[in-house]
């Protein structure tokens, strides 16, 4: 019998058993759906982190306090206090640096910020004026910090757009208004342009103050959490890193790089680490989802075995009328493949729907990868072949007279 | 044409071995019309299943159109059942979710007959058995006699040289039974070999030859004049 006709008959059979068909593919739907959702979610968060880090520029070196450790970069800051304002001044004033174009520093911590009744907990970042150009931050309204703001520890603030909106509401120009941070009052002089990101790295949910205002007036500290340095070009990154490293060692009175009480990382390093971490998580979660796919496959095998038993007389009759073993195998195998294929398709749709909702609610960029979707459907159909094979083979072995006698 | 030599058949259920057929031997030539009679449980159906290549004897030889059946594999047996034998079951054995037409088309589908030709031929044979108005009826929309006639059309559709019928009229009222027997007689005149199991003496009398099976042995083999 022609394969297309076997296919048509299988479709008929499945249509006649709609409820059973639906229930039997549920496992596959859930399995494929969760694999797709988790993969897209993993890719989305990776893309989001990548975008944020790359938006800082590829020439950027970051110096943080704490010992250098290979592979893993410390993401927490502030536990060590050995990067000082003097370090920055020394770097700026040294004429040894041939590879560095700009130097800036930041001290950041979280604090309560309020305007009238609105009260939010947000990252407050004391910065030197170079930070804006180092980190590609631009102003939407107002002006940047001046040397005068820096020197006199002026109580002025520049807000990230999300923070401006949280405090003042949509469409209100907050320039000239006064906000309260930890009891002190600060005048808003600018709002930055949206960079379109959220989470711990967000540059939209932030309050910028002049570095010394934040250090001395607000938080009462004398160290910085990060020093940012831009190399003159991507090619001299390694040279810049070395120059900077040895300079800071000397500055801190240390002899060898092993004693370093700071770590220097490029955006590339950070990106790699984060990519590694998200990839591991994604793989782990996808692995768990894949187990549910396996369970779905076993469900298909179970239902196919029931179908074969139920249709024993039919199989006997077909063999009595001339069906060869291959025809019988195809008949049941195709049924299993159709089941898992449909399950796979529905699973993909549900998975994509779920990823859409999840990425939307976490404001992550949605990246659909066509290959992984096609792969998922192929995997589903393959599961049909693997788990449908045994029942189909069993059916084809039935002897006509025994099968016809079966009650 | 058909030759069985010393066929025995026994069934084993656990330690229990029941022998059903004992040393059965006979020959049936092409174009014969044979009735097999005998009391219930005497092994008629068992014998018929062996003749139809649906079952294998425990011992003995069965030669069908020159081929030794026990030497053939599963698929070769399927081919023989498909093209050389038309088997009419006592209980019709139609597929319940298929229309009369599609039921008749099944053997042709396995033989690889193109679909358009299959439909034409299925209609032709449904016409022959008098069901030209029932092509699209499902089995549960047909009477017993009509179902049996669909089964006959199906058995005829591959134009097999041998037609085996296991009590084809057992469940039918006399009028319908007569129609079917008349159909067999016509087919026999056209050259088909026909073997029919029956409990009905009238039907047996109309055959050319009667085999009487009692307790798994042939006790008489008579030609009707
Ligand atoms: N699978 C089986 N296992 C054991 N015994 C069987 C099996 N099939 C048939 N028999 C026995 O074989 C004997 C012959 O059965 P068979 O069906 O051939 O009888 P029959 O002559 O066709 O009877 P009837 O006229 O009632 O149809 C019976 O005694 C039956 O119990
Ligand atoms: Mg019988």
UniProtKB/TrEMBL annotation, chain A:
Q: Which residues form the ABC3 transporter permease C-terminal domain?
A: 288-400
UniProt-recorded name of the protein:
FtsX-like permease family protein
Q: Name one GO molecular function term.
A: transmembrane transporter activity
Membrane-crossing ranges are 21-42, 281-308, 329-358, 370-390
Q: Mention any one GO cellular component term assigned to this protein in its UniProt record.
A: plasma membrane
Sequence ranges assigned to domain MacB-like periplasmic core in this UniProt record: 21-244
Homology family = Belongs to the ABC-4 integral membrane protein family.
Which Pfam families did the record assign?
Answer: FtsX, MacB_PCD
Location in or out of the cell: Cell membrane
Automatic annotation (TrEMBL), chain B:
Gene Ontology CC annotations of this record: membrane protein complex
Under the heading PANTHER family, the entry gives: CELL DIVISION ATP-BINDING PROTEIN FTSE (PTHR42798:SF6), LIPOPROTEIN-RELEASING SYSTEM ATP-BINDING PROTEIN LOLD (PTHR42798)
Q: Which organism is it from?
A: candidate division WWE3 bacterium
Tell whether Nucleotide-binding is among the UniProt keywords. Answer: yes
What protein name does the entry list?
ABC transporter ATP-binding protein
Question: What family is this protein classified in?
Answer: Belongs to the ABC transporter superfamily.
Q: Give UniProt keywords alphabetically.
A: ATP-binding, Nucleotide-binding, Transport
Where the record annotates domain ABC transporter, the positions are 2-225
| Molecular function as annotated in GO | ATP binding; ATP hydrolysis activity; transmembrane transporter activity
Lineage, top-rank taxon, reads Bacteria
- For whether the record's keyword set contains ATP-binding, the answer is yes
Q: What Pfam families does the record tag this protein with?
A: ABC_tran
The lineage, from the top, is: Bacteria, Katanobacteria
């Amino acid at each position: 019998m022609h394969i297309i006709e076997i296919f048509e008959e299988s479709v008929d059979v499945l249509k006649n058993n709609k409820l059973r068909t639906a229930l039997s593919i549920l496992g596959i739907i859930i399995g494929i759906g969760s694999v797709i959702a988790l993969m897209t979610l993993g890719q989305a968060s990776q893309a989001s982190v990548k975008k944020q880090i790359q938006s800082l520029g590829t020439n950027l070196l970051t110096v943080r306090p704490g010992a250098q450790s290979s592979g893993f970069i410390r993401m927490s800051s502030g536990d060590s206090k050995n990067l000082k304002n003097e370090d920055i001044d020394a770097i700026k004033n040294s004429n040894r640096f041939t590879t560095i174009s700009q130097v800036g520093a930041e001290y950041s911590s979280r604090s309560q910020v309020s305007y009238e009744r609105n009260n939010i907990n947000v990252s407050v970042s004391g910065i030197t004026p170079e930070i804006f150009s180092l980190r590609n931050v631009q102003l939407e309204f107002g002006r940047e910090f001046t040397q005068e703001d820096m020197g006199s520890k002026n109580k002025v603030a520049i807000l990230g757009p999300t923070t401006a909106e949280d405090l003042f509401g949509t469409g209100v120009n907050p320039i000239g208004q006064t906000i309260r941070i930890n009891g002190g009052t600060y005048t808003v002089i600018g709002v930055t342009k949206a960079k379109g990101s959220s989470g711990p790295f967000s540059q939209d949910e932030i309050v910028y103050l002049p570095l010394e205002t934040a250090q001395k007036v607000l938080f009462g500290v004398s160290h910085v959490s990060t020093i940012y340095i831009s190399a003159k070009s991507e090619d001299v990154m390694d040279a810049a890193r070395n120059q900077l490293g040895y300079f800071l060692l000397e500055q801190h009175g240390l002899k060898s790089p092993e004693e370093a009480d700071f770590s220097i990382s490029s955006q590339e390093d950070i990106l790699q680490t984060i990519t590694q971490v998200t990839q591991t998580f994604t793989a782990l979660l996808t692995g768990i989802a894949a187990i549910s796919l396996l369970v779905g496959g076993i469900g298909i095998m179970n239902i196919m075995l029931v179908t074969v038993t139920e249709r024993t007389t039919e199989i006997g009759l077909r063999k009595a009328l001339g069906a060869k073993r291959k025809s019988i195998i195809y008949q049941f195998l195709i049924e299993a493949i159709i089941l898992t294929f449909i399950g796979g398709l529905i699973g993909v749709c549900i998975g994509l729907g779920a990823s859409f909702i999840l990425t939307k609610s976490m404001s992550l960029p949605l990246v659909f990868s066509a290959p992984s979707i096609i792969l998922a459907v192929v995997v589903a159909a393959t599961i049909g072949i693997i788990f449908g094979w045994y029942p189909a083979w069993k059916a084809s072995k039935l002897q006509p007279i025994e099968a016809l006698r079966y009650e | 044409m058909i030759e069985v030599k010393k066929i025995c058949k026994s069934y084993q259920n656990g330690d229990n071995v029941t022998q059903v057929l004992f040393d059965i031997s006979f020959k049936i030539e092409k174009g014969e019309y044979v009735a097999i009679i005998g009391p219930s449980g005497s092994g008629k159906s068992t014998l018929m299943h062996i003749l139809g290549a649906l079952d294998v004897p425990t011992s003995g030889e069965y030669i069908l159109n020159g081929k030794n059946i026990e030497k053939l594999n599963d698929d070769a047996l399927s081919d023989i059942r498909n093209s050389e034998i038309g088997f009419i079951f006592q209980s019709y054995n139609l597929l319940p979710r298929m229309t009369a037409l599609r039921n008749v088309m099944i053997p042709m589908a396995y033989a690889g007959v193109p679909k358009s030709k299959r439909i034409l031929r299925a209609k032709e044979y449904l016409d022959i058995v008098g069901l030209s108005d029932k092509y699209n009826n499902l089995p549960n929309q047909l009477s017993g006699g009509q179902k049996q006639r669909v089964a006959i059309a199906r058995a005829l559709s591959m134009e097999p040289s041998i037609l085996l019928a296991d009590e084809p009229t057992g469940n039918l009222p006399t009028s319908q039974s007569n129609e079917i027997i008349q159909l067999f007689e016509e087919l026999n005149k056209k050259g088909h070999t026909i073997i029919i199991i029956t409990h009905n003496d009238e039907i047996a009398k109309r055959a050319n030859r009667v085999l009487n099976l009692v307790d798994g042995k042939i006790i008489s083999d008579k030609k009707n004049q």
